[in-house]
Amino acid sequence: MAVQAESKQSSHAGDHSKLDPKDHLLLDPKPRGEMNAMVMEAMQTTHWRFWVAVAVLGGIVAYCLVYMWIYMIQEGLGVAGVNRPVYWGVFLVNTVFWIGISHAGTFVSALLRVFKAEYRRPFTRAAELMTSFGLIQAGISILMHMGRVWRFYWMVPYPNERMLWPNFRSPLMWDLLAITTYLLASTMYLFLPLIPDLAMARDRSTGWRKKLYRVLALGFRGTEKEWSHLHHALNIFAFAILPVMFSVHTIVSWDFAVATRPGWNSTIFGPYFVIGALHSGIAAVSMVLIVVRATMKNMKYFIRKEHFNALGVLMLIVSMGWAYFFFNDFMVQWYGGDKWTHFLLHWHEAGPIGWMWFLMLIFNIAVPWLTLWNKKWRSSPLVLFVVGLLINVGMYFERYIIVPVSLGINRNPFSWGEYKPGVEIYLTIGTFALFILLYMIASKLIPLVPVWEVQEGQLAHSVRKIGKAELPAVTDLE
Amino acid sequence: MTEKLKILALFEDIDPAAHSMDALHDLGIGHEEVEVITGSPIKPEMMGRHHPHSKVPLFAFVGSVGGLFIGILLAFVTPRLYPLNVGGKGLSPGAPSIVVIFEMIMLFMLISTFLGVIFESMFPDYTKKEYHPEISDGHIAVLIDIEPDQQSALEDAMKNAGAKTVRVAERQQI
Amino acid sequence: MDKKIPEFKANFAEEEQGKWGLVVDQDLCTGCNACVVACSMENNVSFVGEDDAAYGRAMHWIRIERLWEGEYPEVKKTPYQPTMCQQCGDAPCEPVCPVFAAVHSEAQDLNAQVYNRCVGTRYCANNCPYQVRVFNWRDWERPTPLENQLNPDVTVRQRGVMEKCTFCIQRIRKAEDTAKSENREFQDGDMQTACQQACPANAIIFGRLDDPESQVSKMSKQDRGTELLPELGISPRVTYLEVRK
């Protein structure tokens, strides 16, 4: 469906009044059939390097995740680095980290949808996939840290003869409910807008793919009723999944904040963690998009510098928000905290892991603030990738400091101690490998770009002439 | 009692498809006998048609009420089946109960919304249906129910309005 | 004694003195660690080996905290502090367990750890301000013939399970049963905790806090008596008698 764009007749006026369609995906429409073909090609073609990567990642998952986890279950948590007083270590760090990554997807597909940020259109699905796969890693990490993981189902509320239900006064139970809700909700929110694209893939494929997409597309045709139901559902999901997203990371932060530990018992943890999740999440989305754009065919059409520019702006703003909450937490604890809290803050800065605290501040604040203000830099995929990577490392450090480093100090100096990760290193590598592996497999199984949403956006966008300027105009098609 | 015929007219753009609605109106074909199928959502108003009613918000509402009951069950009923004292806290303290009830409301509302789409659209439906694969390539399909004697008039009208193809719609395995 | 579950947290009575209590006289304690050994023997506590112990994984349910005032050789005071589960009235370890493995026993007013319910999330240990909870990081060995030393009254715990001092609940139950069969209440001298029994200085006294005539009741009310971390308001049942000036 071609957009009736105004013809650019004013070639004589001055070049800065012309809009370059190469800058804007939604002003550079292609026929739907062509975009479909591009997405199908990106999905169906694989380079031999893809298979090498899959094999390597599969091997890493098999050894670092599966084998090491079985080993840990057999031997007990003694092969990990946890001890007294650091009862929670890297597994909890990973859980918080992966839930943070998963917030990225919801942010892009729900928050940007609610705010009608049109630039989200080409990458909502790529981001939403990160949510589902990130939550899987978070779930695995939390199961790993349990002493008797084979009894984890006792945390699931189900009727039994002994009338023994789980303890809903425990923050871990709120965690279970919140993460389950979020996982199911974001998977449904991933699937619903995928249905029309699965229908498109069904119409354009053969063999086993056609069978797969025919089953998954549920017989979707595109009638007015079907679009109406989908439209209502997507609106409800977008609005409703936002409080769920905020509540999930707030509840995860309460695992720490409601405890009686110095440094943990801070009232700011809720919003601090949510902003932290957005910080690492948006950085991770940028990284994934850059890799997708570099490695998959035709993605350079869909994902352009304007998107990196927008994500870079978001990263800068969220980085400022994170700095605000971090400073808030620090100031309040430093000024009015008890002697244990004071010693903990000193331990953060000057203890054996003090270097991590400083690097955290550099990566989370200095790096984005010094680079992302410049439009040219943040539109460059390479710069954005490096900045995103450093932000993610910085945020991982932040959670490492909050969990194992802070647990080293408590109100009983006789029980102060340090933490040295053991098999957690392998298992962490395993979760990263599994995340990447799942993502790579998904990118070849489902269309990564929601073409119908891109087409909808291209229909809504046109170029309008006001005076001598050519400006983009957006029609509200809600 | 003549059998009704279903005609499929395929348009490449919104404007010709919208204008064809006038032609249908001239032929005395009402909105209920016409179905519009598109590869990306267009507002029905663009075709001069009414927005179809959807019960999905109702499903969402019912789901949230269900979630409320389940949240109340978990937070208020289950602790009393086997009351245990933990740390001097009451059996159903206010703040944790709010958390549990909120999550259950959201969970069941969203599950219900999803099931609402499934039920309302009657998914999954793998039976043979009228369809054309070019719809997902961005074409607009107009399906019209007519008496067989109107067929040639309709085909002319659609071709004049700018239809790419006009033919009798067959049920096919999509 | 039936302690009602409060309706609101604020209703919880801090002044309730509890049922069972301990008094530790730091003036008498010599830091000999006999209580540690006796407790480990009585309660089938595992021996973790040098490496694990150095890494903070020793399984002792009671530990002697070495504290001193002054610099060697002019050390003025050595108030050794035997620290065990304080059996808090308002224990922070209890509400955080997702599966109700750490609950408050209403009959005994003690903090109960239910071994076969524990799934090993270790939140309770993080939340204990005294850090007295220990976790079974492995299945430590008991090479033959050490398994003959096991106390049949006490479970042997599996890896992945949390444990802590129980005020020798198995001895409490036996003593209460005996008293009940003799149609009387428990009285001082009916039983001793393992740590109390082993202490050569009689620095540990155990008994009924709700019996005003019991030794532990009287001693806990002495001027020298303090609680650990009283500002938390969690009502520990252990009173420490400070070293005399």
Defining key terms:
A: about 475 residues, mainly alpha, Formate dehydrogenase/DMSO reductase fold, about 65% helix, globular, B: about 170 residues, alpha+beta, Alpha-Beta Plaits, 4 helices, about 15% strand
Order of helices and strands of chain A: HHHHHHHHHHHHHHHHHEE
Largest sheet of chain B: 4 strands, antiparallel
What is the 3D shape of chain A?
globular
Poorly predicted segments of chain B: none
What percent strand of chain B? 15-25%
Question: Got a strand count of chain B?
Answer: 6
Query: How many individual domains of chain A?
Result: 1
The CATH superfamily of chain A turns out to be Formate dehydrogenase/DMSO reductase domain
Instruction: Outline the low-pLDDT stretches of chain A.
Output: 1-14
The largest chain-to-chain contact, stated as pair and per-chain residue counts, equals: A-B, 65 and 67 residues
C-alpha Rg of chain A (nearest Å): 24 Å
CATH architecture of chain A: Up-down Bundle
| Structure summary, number of beta strands of chain A | 2
Number of domains of chain B: 2
Q: State the end-to-end CA separation of chain B.
A: 30 Å
In short:
The complex is a heterotrimer of chains A (478), B (174) and C (245). With 174 residues, chain B is α+β, with helices and mostly antiparallel strands. Chain B contains four helices and six strands; from the N terminus they run βαβααββαββ.
Task: Report what the structure shows.
The complex is a heterotrimer of chains A (478), B (174) and C (245). With 478 residues, chain A is mostly helical. In chain A, 67% of the residues lie in helices and 3% in strands. Chain C has a single domain (20-241), classed as Alpha-Beta Plaits, CATH 3.30.70.20. By secondary structure, chain C is an alpha+beta fold. Chain C is built from six helices and ten strands. Helices cover 18% and strands 14% of the residues of chain C. The chains are: A mainly alpha (478), B alpha+beta (174), C alpha+beta (245). Chains in contact: A-B, A-C, B-C. At the A-B interface, helix 1, helix 5, helix 6, helix 8 and helix 17 of A face strand 2, helix 2 and helix 3 of B.
